[in-house]
Design brief:
Number of strands: 4
Strand order of the largest sheet: 3-2-1-4
Order of helices and strands: EEEHE
Length: about 70
């Protein structure tokens, strides 16, 4: 039996510097910082004030943690 992923996945940074966000398997947008992640959660019907972005049972950070927001490549 495969382990389930958390409902929110923050994918590795793209060359543009943004990170794709999926909620329950649906792509909800491209975030460029923590505030964007919170806004995408709100738009997906989750209360970002009750979801800890550091809780690994709720959010899986791939390719860097919550503080990894590289600048776009030229």
């Amino acid at each position: 039996m495969a382990a389930e992923h958390p409902p929110v996945i923050v994918h590795p940074p793209s060359p543009s510097g943004g990170r794709r966000i999926t909620v329950r398997g649906q792509i909800v947008g491209l975030a460029h910082g923590r505030g964007d992640v919170a806004e995408f959660l709100r738009a997906a019907g989750l209360d970002p004030d009750s979801v800890s972005l550091n809780d690994p049972t709720l959010v899986e950070w791939r390719g860097g943690d919550i503080d990894h927001w590289p600048r776009p490549t030229a």
